[in-house]
Design goal:
The chain has 127 residues and is of the alpha+beta class. The chain has two domains: 59 residues, Roll (2,3-Dihydroxybiphenyl 1,2-Dioxygenase, domain 1), CATH 3.10.180; 55 residues, 2,3-Dihydroxybiphenyl 1,2-Dioxygenase, domain 1 (Roll), CATH 3.10.180.10. It is built from two helices and nine strands, in the order E-H-E-E-E-E-E-H-E-E-E. Strands 1, 2, 3, 4 and 5 form a five-stranded mixed beta sheet that branches. It is globular, with a radius of gyration of 15 Å. It starts with 6 loop residues before the first strand and ends with a strand.
């Protein structure tokens, strides 16, 4: 069986990114890894269903131009119901995060919203 083991994203503020995923998506963080030779730091975040996200920081990494750049475009979280999508979207909006779209039913039948985290990464909330 093949499955995606984890996805990874670079962050400029590693601790803020960790707090974001812990607060809004109930992530559990592992211990920070720090390579003192390269300055690389990372946390593996685990979610209830076993999915993992590695958040990483390194001073030499620069910002890419989102959303129209090559590479991964967003990460999607299935919340289980339209009501939960609506609720979390409203919570994130009230906490100052930018809502890009929705909540809405898309042309291909998904009920979703899309927000930006503090660093401009797109987070899709779906049923």
């Amino acid at each position: 069986m093949i499955r995606i083991e984890h996805a990874a994203v670079y962050c400029s503020d590693l601790e803020a990114a960790r707090a974001f995923f812990e607060k809004y998506f109930s992530a559990s963080s592992g211990k920070m890894y720090h390579n003192t030779k390269t300055g690389f730091r990372s946390y593996f975040l685990s979610f209830d269903d076993g999915a993992r996200l590695e958040i990483m920081s390194k001073g030499t990494v620069s910002q890419k131009q989102l959303p129209d750049s090559l590479g991964f475009a967003h990460i999607a979280f299935s919340l289980g119901s339209a009501e939960k999508v609506d609720s979390l979207t409203e919570i994130l909006k009230n906490d100052g995060y930018k809502v890009i779209s929705g909540p809405r039913t898309t042309g291909d039948g998904y009920y979703e919203s899309c927000i930006e985290d503090a660093e401009g990464n797109r987070i899709e909330l779906t049923v």
